[in-house]
Amino acid sequence: MVTLSSTGPVLPEEILAAMKLMAGEAVFCIRAHPNERGRRVREAERILGGQGLNTLPIWAASRFPISLWLPHVDCHLDVAWSTTIKEAELFGVGSVATTEEAATFFDEQAGSGALRIAESPSAIVTAMRLQIAGRRE
What we know:
This protein is α/β, with parallel strands linked by helices and about 140 residues long. Helix content is about 45%, strand content about 10%. It has helices at about 15-20, 40-50, 60-65, 65-70, 85-90, 100-105, 105-110, 120-135, and strands at about 1-5, 30, 75-80, 95, 115. A five-stranded parallel β-sheet has the order 2-1-3-4-5. The chain is globular.
């Protein structure tokens, strides 16, 4: 699951590049921020169009409570940082955030390995694979 932010780039380049690196091995469930379901969703859909990624419709992942999705995802990728990191941990789902700032807000999760910080596309992919492996153990 990829959770989008309500501020900053809609879908940062490093996230999109990481998704492309995992194109053959992942289905991406992309969820809009609860405060942003209009223009930014359309922009994310425009960015994702034609990328060859296996994604669920953003509206589907955004319409229902996150607690319905988390039991069915292998990893949570956060565009910035959000409380979804704590929610994912409750379901045994590891998170990857792309800003060091996330570790300051979620130091307990970072310390336990429930949250990994990765900033480059290859580091994001590595962190996601580690979180997925931990979920399946």
